[in-house]
Amino acid sequence: MITVEGRVQRSSMGMGTWALVTPDGTTYEILKGAPQELLQPDLAVRVTGIVRSDVMTMAMIGPVLDVQQFELLPP
After folding, report:
1. CATH code for the domain of 44
2. Among candidates 25, 68, 29, 26, which has minimal Cα distance to 49?
3. Average pLDDT score over the chain
4. How many domains does the chain have?
5. Which domain holds residue 36?
6. Tens digit of pLDDT for each residue in 19-31?
7. pTM value?
């Protein structure tokens, strides 16, 4: 499990996907099935999840993050 902070972004790569971009520029692709409340452009969040090395995606924009829980951060 990892915990990372960043901003949620919508990416048009592949068929379109959601990503979490950290302040240092690291991009995690959010695994499909994440809570809809998380999938809001420019939302500041702290996410706890599992980096899935066994999953490949069409977008391939970064490590795939299987979100287990999240919390909103002040904008």
Report:
1. 2.40.50
2. 68
3. 95
4. 1
5. 2-72
6. 999 999 999 999 9
7. 0.92
CB atoms within 10 A of CB 40: 12
Query: CA–CA separation, 65 vs 60, rounded Å?
Result: 12
Distances (CA, A) of 71 to 18, 22, 39, 54, 58: 17, 15, 12, 26, 27
> Please, are residues 47 and 67 in contact by the beta-carbon 8 Å criterion?
yes
Going by the DSSP 8-state scheme, the letter that residue 13 receives in this structure is S
Closest CA to 47 of 30, 31, 71, 23: 71
The tokens describing 45, both together, are 């969040």
Asked if 29 and 19 count as a contact pair (C-beta separation under 8 A), the reply is: yes
